[in-house]
Design a protein that fits this description.
By secondary structure, this protein is of the alpha/beta class. It is built from 13 helices and 8 strands. It is globular and about 50 Å long.
Length: about 425
């Protein structure tokens, strides 16, 4: 009798195991052992800013990436240092760590850039000059610092994710100004073209300039300048569902698979926002139609991507009183962010919003229990249907076995 009940229990356990690398059936939710903190990301941003002007081929930039690598090693990661050169950069280097998952040919990549630039604002945008320096606190100390905090937390999570995760700190994202013979985005381009095998599918999350976003309230100065929004918005510019014109104009041939994955990823990000109770008005998932950050290279090479970004453009350039940031300027400092964000607490809260989104995206991959009806890899509804059929069959088998056990038990009585 005991043996029969152990068989029943074994069948019940089988119904709670993942049916594939993509779909989980277990329904028990677990609590993560650690969660990223906006205060820690803020401290990392301050450290990045303290290195000074992190322009490519400078000691400041090299010292910053050395510090990033040392922090990662202290968390227990094996650090990959991926050097590369371009026409204008002789000593560029990406910093990458890998968390091996069950799927080696499907990657989730999260990235931020560690370099900074300073040049003139509109209407003479892009003119560099000797006294122009920037500590790059917002662009992109916020992204680099937040990514370090995510790396710390991921190192504390037990088990293995479904997908292979890579975290990358890119060099040479910034365009070097109107006198440069080449554009920016060279670090992420090097990773996409040289480090991703042809048979690997990537979903990429780009962290470039956030913290000045929900739940940071719009400052009085912005309201007086004509901004009528209650909060600054956090945007998630994602592979388009409807409008691919920008990427098609740059030569991308959009496939049905790209469209399907874009639809899946936008829905996943919206589900994350709903799970976190983020107001859709202030934390928005929308088609990316401009592509002016590192996610561009991933999308142009057939991968799915999103750019998590707070306030961004110059007010003079956009004519939008709600878009005021110090990017690419001497004023891009921690103190400026504190003023715009209503103090350190506000900046930390803005960082926390983005951290929560990325950490939830990751935790759902570690803890498939929370995704019993979701296709993690975005392969389409067919996988969901097939998983439901398999579950139904297993349930029928379990019920039948239980009935047999009960009948045998009754006969023996």
């Amino acid at each position: 009798m005991a043996r029969l009940w152990r068989a029943v229990l074994a069948c019940l356990v089988l119904t709670t195991l993942p049916l594939s690398g993509n779909i989980g059936i277990e329904v028990v939710e677990e609590v993560p052992p650690a969660w990223p903190e906006g205060s820690e990301a803020y401290d990392n941003m301050v450290e990045m800013a303290n290195f000074g002007y992190r322009r490519i081929d400078t000691n400041a930039n090299q010292n910053a990436r050395d510090w990033i690598a040392s922090q990662l090693e202290s968390f227990g990661y094996e650090v990959e240092r991926q050097p590369f050169t371009t026409e204008v950069c002789s000593n560029c280097e990406n910093i990458v760590v890998t968390i091996e998952g069950e799927l080696s040919d499907e990657w989730y990549v999260v990235g931020a850039h560690h370099d900074a630039i300073c040049y003139s604002p509109p209407p003479l945008i892009g003119m560099t000059y000797p006294t122009c320096t920037s500590s790059g606190a917002y662009d992109d100390g916020t992204g680099s610092g937040a990514l370090l905090e995510l790396a710390r937390v991921f190192s504390l999570w037990e088990g293995k994710p479904t997908h292979t995760w890579k975290l990358g700190w890119w060099d040479y994202e910034e365009w070097q100004g109107s006198g440069s013979p080449e554009g920016g985005g060279k670090g992420s381009l090097h990773f996409v073209t040289e480090q991703i095998p042809d048979d690997v599918e990537v979903t990429y999350v780009n962290l470039d300039m956030f913290a000045l976003n929900w739940p940071v309230e719009t400052p009085i100065a912005s309201q007086l300048a004509g901004c009528n929004e209650d909060y600054w918005t956090l945007y998630q510019f994602t592979s388009p569902v409807s409008d691919w014109s920008y990427y098609e104009g740059n030569g991308l041939e959009v496939t049905e698979e790209m469209q399907d994955r874009a639809t899946w990823f936008q829905e996943r990000l919206k589900s994350i926002n709903s799970n976190l109770s983020h107001p859709e008005q202030w934390v928005r998932v929308i088609d990316d139609t401009k592509g002016n950050s590192d996610h561009f290279n991933f999308i142009m090479n057939g991968h799915t991507a999103t750019w998590i970004r707070g306030q961004h453009q110059y007010i003079y350039e956009e004519g939008d009183a709600c878009e005021q940031t110090p990017k690419h300027a001497q004023s891009d400092s921690v103190s400026t962010l504190n003023v715009l964000g209503g103090g350190r607490v506000g900046v930390e809260s803005g960082l926390q919003t983005g951290l929560d989104i990325v950490a939830t995206h990751a935790w759902w991959d570690w803890n498939i229990a929370q995704n019993d009806s979701q296709v993690i890899s975005g392969q389409g509804d067919a996988d969901v249907v097939s998983s439901q059929v398999i579950v139904a069959v297993l349930v029928v088998i379990v019920i039948s076995l239980v009935a047999v056990v009960m009948r045998i038990h009754k006969i023996n009585q």
